[in-house]
């Protein structure tokens, strides 16, 4: 008892300490952002930007916050847009400066404006999810969550945050707490204010959608292209032809190779795609060896680390074009994965089998040679040339995720080949690399997606042989990812695996249909397990039949709600706002209209199973809407779309109650859905009701009255505003008479 009292006394202390640490981290991040972008001094009259005078400090700050952990912490605090707003002017200023001046750090290291620019630019790219390749934008029916990120998007969010900051009581407390220490510019920023960055971004988009051509001979860009090729391939005594048809001379001194690159970093990035195109073309035609190409790319990235962004962008785009011959990973021209490729594939199959996914067609048949698309092979060869040290962390954190996403989208077994090569390089990462490679299966095989989603439902409901019989969130998520369990990778819970692989699923509409089908199947299993026919018939003859039925129904409803919450979570994770709006507006009405064959097996007209299915769909739809829109009246973009989607859905329900629409499902299911959805909307989100057209509410109230649900009809009209009061009064009079 004493120990219990001590614990209760210590809880407020630990909670206060945790809150203090969170506020301290938030304050530290904001303080760093303020230091990175100091305001212009009132008496400053220099021709160059005042930021150049703070180059050593800015570089130290950029280096300190560029680690994976720091970026994750900044993201968790929701301060990514503010940090991006500080990086934009830094990139613009230092990327536009000629590297004639250097600064000496306290460590003795000398840095130039190229170094500061590269640190800022690579961090900015990571903030707007540069790791998603162009293939992702052309192969899926609905863009995945987060793919709308861009520099413009980050600036818009940043402007909105600063515009709305201070309106809530919590924000006003922050202002009082931070105003003495922080000095952050609050003026809105737009991409047009950064012409160099905007020009690069346009070139980046053009690189994705079309090939490069028309490099004019003798222009500044052409001269920089030649200088880049000279620097990259100065070790070989051959010229590399450029896209203009001319050939550069590579037989020059090392110092001379860098003379033409004493130009602003933005100019180098503009010329880099043309140099990459010339180098890749030379490699494809056999005039440049793969080893020399990888070495040249490494030299380019060492000279200007920011060029890694263009390298990733260019080679990712070239993979999507499919115009390059495959590279044979034979160990002679290209690195070979043969030493452990078969082992990696078997480990992938083992991981999936432990989660309830059986894909027998994983292995590559015969002795066919391992191949990769040529641009992908170049990227792989480049990454394995890096040493795993702190100096290379910045490069690998930018290229690594992009390479992983690109390999997932390429034909099988591109990802296992990549995993094999990296597992050979870093054996201690084998388990993590193989686990990451397993997501490829779900990109190429829809049946694997169905099996994984089914495993999520059965584990949560306690029906899976691969999980604890108790079910719940613990069985769904397990204990994360672990290795060296009984000599290998420990089984991964299905929920953790889906969180890892859901971005690899190509068709999110297919996921929604599968989730809906699995939800109905789960409800049928719940009904069958909770209401065995023989037991029910036997208990009907006893005096405890009513009490047993109430307990069984309550238990079944608890599990139905659990299944519905899981289904809503899966849909929200898979497709976000757009998918949920499509679900409520189109998919659910289509489901009610259509006949469902095997899903209706065992359904008695007006029976318990039909009712449970209706309530499951109501909870499912309500939770989906809550995830997408929230429950309150807000000014967000998502909430502005809410009235239109809700009106369409409620009009469908009103038409179903009026008999104007013929339903394909059991009437008990439709009735339970209407009552459940409207009850939840009235009780949990009355702000939704106030946004619906009064005529629609009147039609719904009339239909509810026909179902003898006068109280629910009155509650619905009660939240409909003043214009619905007359209809509510008429309903009260009619009910009283």
TrEMBL record:
Name the keywords, alphabetized.
Membrane, Transmembrane, Transmembrane helix
The cross-references to InterPro entries, in alphabetical order and at most eight, read: MED33A/B
Reading the lineage from the top rank, the first entry is: Eukaryota
Cellular-component GO terms for this entry = mediator complex
Key word rRNA-binding present: no
Name this polypeptide is given: Mediator of RNA polymerase II transcription subunit 33A
Which residues are listed as membrane-spanning?
614-631
GO BP terms: namely:
regulation of phenylpropanoid metabolic process
According to its UniProt entry, this protein's organism is Rhizophora mucronata
């Amino acid at each position: 008892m004493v120990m219990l009292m001590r614990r209760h006394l210590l809880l407020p202390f630990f909670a206060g300490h945790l809150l203090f640490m969170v506020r301290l981290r938030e304050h530290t991040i904001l303080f760093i952002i303020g230091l990175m972008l100091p305001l212009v001094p009132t008496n400053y009259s220099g021709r160059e930007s005042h930021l150049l005078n703070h180059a050593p400090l800015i570089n130290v700050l950029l280096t300190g916050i560029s680690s994976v952990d720091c970026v994750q912490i900044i993201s968790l605090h929701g301060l990514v847009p503010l940090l991006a707003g500080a990086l934009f002017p830094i990139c613009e200023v230092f990327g536009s400066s000629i590297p004639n001046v250097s600064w000496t750090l306290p460590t003795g290291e000398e840095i130039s404006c190229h170094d500061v620019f590269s640190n800022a630019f690579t961090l900015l790219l990571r903030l707007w999810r540069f790791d998603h390749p162009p293939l992702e934008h052309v192969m899926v029916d609905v863009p995945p969550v987060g793919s709308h990120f861009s520099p413009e998007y980050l600036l818009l969010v940043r402007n909105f945050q600063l515009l709305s900051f201070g309106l809530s009581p919590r924000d006003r407390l922050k202002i009082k707490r931070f105003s003495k220490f922080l000095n952050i510019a609050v003026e809105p920023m737009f991409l047009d204010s950064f012409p160099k960055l905007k020009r690069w971004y346009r070139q980046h988009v053009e690189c994705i959608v079309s090939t490069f051509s028309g490099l004019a001979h003798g222009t500044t860009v052409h001269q920089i292209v030649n200088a880049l090729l000279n620097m990259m391939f100065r070790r070989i005594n051959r010229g590399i032809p450029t896209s203009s048809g001319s050939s550069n001379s590579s037989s020059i001194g090392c110092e001379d190779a860098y003379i033409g690159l004493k130009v602003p970093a933005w100019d180098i990035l503009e010329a880099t795609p043309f140099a990459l195109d010339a180098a890749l073309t030379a490699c494809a035609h056999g005039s440049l060896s793969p080893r020399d190409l990888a070495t040249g790319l490494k030299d380019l990235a060492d000279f200007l680390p920011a060029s890694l962004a263009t390298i990733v962008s260019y080679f990712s785009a070239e993979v999507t074009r499919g115009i390059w011959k495959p590279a044979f990973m034979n160990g002679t021209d290209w690195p070979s994965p043969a030493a452990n490729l078969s082992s990696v594939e078997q480990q992938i199959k083992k991981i999936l089998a432990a989660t309830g996914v059986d894909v027998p067609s994983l292995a590559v048949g015969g002795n066919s040679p391992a191949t990769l698309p040529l641009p992908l092979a170049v990227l792989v060869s480049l990454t394995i040339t890096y040493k795993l040290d702190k100096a290379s962390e910045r490069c690998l954190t930018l290229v690594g995720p992009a390479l992983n996403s690109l390999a997932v989208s390429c034909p099988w077994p591109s990802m296992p080949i990549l995993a094999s090569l990296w597992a050979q390089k870093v054996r201690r990462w084998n388990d993590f690399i193989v686990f990451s490679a397993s997501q490829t299966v779900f990109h190429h095989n829809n049946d694997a997606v169905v099996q994984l989603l089914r495993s999520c439902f059965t584990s949560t409901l306690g029906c899976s042989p691969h999980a604890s019989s108790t079910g719940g969130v613990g069985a769904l998520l397990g204990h994360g990812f672990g290795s060296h369990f009984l000599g290998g990778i420990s089984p991964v819970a299905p929920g953790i695996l889906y969180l890892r692989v859901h971005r690899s699923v190509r068709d999110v509409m297919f996921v929604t249909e599968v989730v809906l089908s699995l939800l109905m199947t789960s409800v049928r299993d719940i009904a069958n397990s909770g209401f065995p026919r023989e037991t029910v018939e036997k208990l009907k003859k006893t005096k405890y039949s009513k009490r047993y039925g109430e307990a069984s129904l309550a238990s079944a409803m608890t599990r139905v709600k659990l299944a519905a919450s899981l289904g809503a979570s899966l849909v929200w994770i898979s497709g976000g706002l757009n998918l949920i709006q499509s679900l409520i507006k189109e998919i659910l009405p289509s489901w009610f209209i259509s006949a469902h064959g095997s899903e209706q097996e065992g359904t008695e007209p007006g029976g318990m199973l039909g009712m449970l299915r209706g309530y499951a769909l109501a909870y499912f739809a309500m939770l989906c809407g809550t995830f997408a829109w929230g429950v309150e009246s807000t000014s967000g973009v998502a909430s502005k779309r809410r009235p239109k989607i809700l009106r369409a859905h409620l009009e469908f329900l009103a038409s179903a109650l009026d008999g104007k629409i013929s339903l394909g499902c059991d009437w008990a299911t439709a009735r339970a859905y209407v009552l459940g959805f409207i009850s939840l909307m009235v009780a949990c989100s009355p702000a939704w009701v106030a946004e619906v057209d009064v005529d629609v509410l009147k039609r719904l109230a009339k239909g509810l009255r026909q179902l003898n649900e006068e109280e629910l009809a009155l509650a619905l009209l009660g939240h409909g505003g003043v214009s619905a009061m007359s209809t509510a009064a008429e309903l009260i009079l009619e009910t009283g008479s």
